[in-house]
Amino acid sequence: MIVILRRDASEEQVRRIVSAIEEAGFGAHVSRGEQRTIVGAIGTSPEARPILIERFKGLPFVDKVVPVLKPYKLVSMEAKTQREPVRVGDVSVGPDTFTVIAGPCAVESEEQLMAAARAVRDAGARLLRGGAFKPRTSPYDFQGLGEEGLKLLAAARRETGLPVVTEARAAGQVELVARYADVIQVGARNMQNFDLLKEAGRSGMPVVLKRGFASTVEEWLKAAEHVASAGNLNIILCERGIRTYEQAVRFTQDLAIVPVVRELSHLPVIVDPSHASGRRGLVGPVCRAALAIGADGALVEVHPNPDGALCDAAQQLRPKQFEEMMRRLRRLAAALDREM
Amino acid sequence: MIVILRRDASEEQVRRIVSAIEEAGFGAHVSRGEQRTIVGAIGTSPEARPILIERFKGLPFVDKVVPVLKPYKLVSMEAKTQREPVRVGDVSVGPDTFTVIAGPCAVESEEQLMAAARAVRDAGARLLRGGAFKPRTSPYDFQGLGEEGLKLLAAARRETGLPVVTEARAAGQVELVARYADVIQVGARNMQNFDLLKEAGRSGMPVVLKRGFASTVEEWLKAAEHVASAGNLNIILCERGIRTYEQAVRFTQDLAIVPVVRELSHLPVIVDPSHASGRRGLVGPVCRAALAIGADGALVEVHPNPDGALCDAAQQLRPKQFEEMMRRLRRLAAALDREM
Amino acid sequence: MIVILRRDASEEQVRRIVSAIEEAGFGAHVSRGEQRTIVGAIGTSPEARPILIERFKGLPFVDKVVPVLKPYKLVSMEAKTQREPVRVGDVSVGPDTFTVIAGPCAVESEEQLMAAARAVRDAGARLLRGGAFKPRTSPYDFQGLGEEGLKLLAAARRETGLPVVTEARAAGQVELVARYADVIQVGARNMQNFDLLKEAGRSGMPVVLKRGFASTVEEWLKAAEHVASAGNLNIILCERGIRTYEQAVRFTQDLAIVPVVRELSHLPVIVDPSHASGRRGLVGPVCRAALAIGADGALVEVHPNPDGALCDAAQQLRPKQFEEMMRRLRRLAAALDREM
Amino acid sequence: MIVILRRDASEEQVRRIVSAIEEAGFGAHVSRGEQRTIVGAIGTSPEARPILIERFKGLPFVDKVVPVLKPYKLVSMEAKTQREPVRVGDVSVGPDTFTVIAGPCAVESEEQLMAAARAVRDAGARLLRGGAFKPRTSPYDFQGLGEEGLKLLAAARRETGLPVVTEARAAGQVELVARYADVIQVGARNMQNFDLLKEAGRSGMPVVLKRGFASTVEEWLKAAEHVASAGNLNIILCERGIRTYEQAVRFTQDLAIVPVVRELSHLPVIVDPSHASGRRGLVGPVCRAALAIGADGALVEVHPNPDGALCDAAQQLRPKQFEEMMRRLRRLAAALDREM
Predict the structure, then answer these.
(1) To the nearest whole angstrom, how far is the Cα of B61 from the nearest Cα of chain D?
(2) D36·A68 Cβ contact <8 A
(3) Is the model's pLDDT at D334 over the cut of 70?
(4) Chain A partners within 8 Å of C340 (Cβ)
(5) Which domains does chain C have, with CATH numbers?
(6) Is B258 in contact with D285 (Cβ distance < 8 A)?
(7) For the whole model, what pTM was predicted?
(8) ipTM
(9) Long-range contacts from D85-91, C-beta under 8 angstroms, 24+ separation
């Protein structure tokens, strides 16, 4: 880390910084300019570093503390020599494919789920999604079918051959979800639920890690590091929109973050246009943009009869609309030399 | 709710809206202007309403859907004829007092906690805070002492007489925390952890509910409604800063939301200046502003030796600084006719 | 507009609203539900409406005021039966083309501009951009060549045949800029400079109207309405990134707003990836996404020698990079049935 | 500045950075850690620095460029040994007073302005505000009385003795405004109108510089530097709310920025609660918080009859409300040892 002192910092204060760095086991390096004195700390200790940074920030004679190393390692680009796919059964996510994961917002009934599953498989989706445990912002909303929903998902997999992605809402649900599903989804509101991240990590299963709707890229990758540090690198990052001042859409889809993340991390990145926009009319255009900007896939909500859906009716595509969208995506993928 | 149709909506489309409203058990009322047709739904059904709103939003001939009723009831101002305090032992939070809750970010050791507890009690704090389970954004950071920390907190209460506020990080921890503490804190990252909210509600204990750092007032009150709908109205709302584009501070403290919340809800609102600013120099000024704007209290981090703290060193006050801050607050409280 | 009263509003207060609506020349329509009384105002008067809305908002017994009509007309989708291109000489912008406008951030010298102009023309750009008046955030930065820069732009047009887009920074500069350029650009920081908008409107020339970096879609279209209401509908909207909490890029490119704007307005929308990202590595991917999501073009910075540029060095493409980007865009455009 | 290279940067790339730094006239200092190489540039040249920073940012082997010096000098705390008031006639703004500036949003008529002016003077305001040139977001809104309004303001000063604050909307209006007013206001939408800033600087008159509603503290102080570098240090900074995701209020008042700005700059900082909240009920509480947090004053809208106001009706105080607010502020000021 680099510590930039205030202009009026005294020699004694410079020495305080140097001692603290040395006591923490780092080497210190002082550079005196005309206007400022700068102290660099050399060496690495992932435990000692954040404490020291925080401590220096609180000193009145310190102007700025600049970390030099990234606060994540296993998921960073520097940790790998080449980008590899995350495999779910015989489906690959990244780096040369565009993998579409589709299905209803919530599992509502056997009939609804089977209709959705068949429709998305026929149109070219490679994985099936569906929520059994729904995090709902109001206590008066539908909360999901729970384990019954998981069983239906497993049945839909048997029927269609599509591996299943579903959300675990708490650390204690991971084992249950892992029993029925193929990929564990960690929702945006849980991106910093560190117990859940660790448990998902320990499970060894592929994890879809949604970006918190007000999380920075750095926080997102640190959350992925929680999963990775429990021994699991099968992580698929998922951009699902961030909260901004603009209210014309539900969330602002941060598509341009995809190439930024791909520079920082070797993990595949997919995009969820359904939750970001909250409107089915935007799902197709955003998917095409996601593909064009280099995303590794998309997570799309499809419902056999959205008007009767128990949640998120406005954003779920009808099977016909999904089919048409997939047709246009395939043509685009060909022009971009991507498999689909 | 009110449904505003697009200019070119047909008579048949108007009828579709009316039928859907009536089938859901509401009355429909059509108003035709020169430029727009508007349909109102009359009646209340907290379950049917959100589904209908979502469904109408997805229709291509609908321009806007405007909810008329608030999505929370028990915590709304309309639910009570007068504002009452939340009581913790013999301490009252709101509406005529300014209650300061203070203590270290994390419980680190018996010595550290006891020193902090005595210092904050002597300076006039009414409740003791301290974290046993720390949600840390990096897996390489200190994660808290767990149950050992809870035991130390209970010991500090015996020693100082101050009731204890501490965080539960998951639904499964509520029972454990309730065994040792007097108030359960739900952290900002857990504001939409609905299982935890419900469990905190069932416990019947006073709850400090922090605002998510990207949550709207409406979402915050809906989260409180989750606690309340489980039968527990002992909720203290806590503003702890929101995420904005400004990076000169860690979070933007949304002080002006205090009078807004007090208009919408009967619950007391306190302010946490330590996490918002991330710097001890701002804690005093923000506390004074919180008192002046009508907050019911503040949650302040105090550490006997911040330079050696295992977390958030920069924002924790030294005991002397806290004492001086409390002295200035008392003078201000007197000029505002508030008890402290 | 619709006025939703508070639950406890009295009959007398309802009458106050009704009288105010009628005195302003509107019809009033009262609807009494079990929980709320709602008053609708029928009729249109673009002058009286905003005053009334603002006045009602200030009344303590009013809960919410909801406008029914959009605050812009001439630029709205409802004002036209079909989408038409904006024409600059024989170049069309929208709705079936993807028009690339390219050139250096600032005009620095004849040599620099000519090299850039030839390079972008040869690679397929249809319009030349370059700044003569630069709005710089620091007084110590390069401020542009002024009229001398405009003359060089005109010379570059003669040489390459490309029509010229350049920024006017104030109402008083419009006439001067119009003398040399083919399209007047209104920068993001001037999106609400209403004198400039009106003057650009009066000029009758095509206008590129950048979105303010913290402006909503509604404010952007209201700004366009300022130009349009001065008699000029030759407006090209340009999304150039919005300010969010994310600091990994300079601005968050709001690509998903493109289909939203196309639903609300008949004006073409282009995208500026250079200013949003601030890094040349993102320009290509964002351009491809812009094309895929349905934008009508892009505004791209190209400099013959970015390392020696007097401004925005990091985001300007080298001619080779631009050429390669255009090649990939053309292939993509073919797969999307768009002309380029 | 400090340049942090990517892990895999070659020796040749390090040399490129060093050469570029030396060619720009700075000294270069290389520090090689185990993981990263860091190059520091020593020396100052306000012109060369931003160009170099921008250029390095664009290099693929550079990870981060960290400026060491602040991009403003004259307005920084380091430029002065002590804080001095800005004087307007015999009124002082800062550092020991809390100066209230009040008056109507827009000058509408002689009668309206005189009534407002007398009321605010009698209640203790020290300066009179009123808009003659109104920046309106819709072309259908009231645009102000222009020079006629300025004449009325000058008449109100003669009548009440209160110096006058009014907005100039463009560089070309500064001379006209300076002829009638005592303080030139630069509005939030013009904070980066650099021609206007420079002209206001040249006028030598006191300037109220509002913070742009999406501007960082650094940009705000750079804007102030534009005024200062034209030879005018009579600058009063004014926080008027920033745009965030929260829609319960018009803008989020960033009160906690006041102590932050006071640490960085010697300029006085006042707060405008009227525009931020858009509701008169919040004006009093926010003013009290502004005083408590250390602001040097407030800018408050007062109208003799807000219900008939031509703009911003909801946020303007009635004279009685203003009087009551001032009474409470004075009591608070006494408890904080501030003059009013």
Answers:
(1) 26
(2) yes
(3) yes
(4) none
(5) 2-66 (3.30.70.1140), 77-335 (3.20.20.70)
(6) yes
(7) 0.94
(8) 0.94
(9) D85/D268, D86/D206, D86/D234, D86/D235, D86/D236, D86/D267, D86/D268, D87/D206, D87/D234, D88/D127, D88/D163, D88/D182, D88/D183, D88/D206, D89/D163, D89/D182, D91/D126, D91/D127, D91/D163
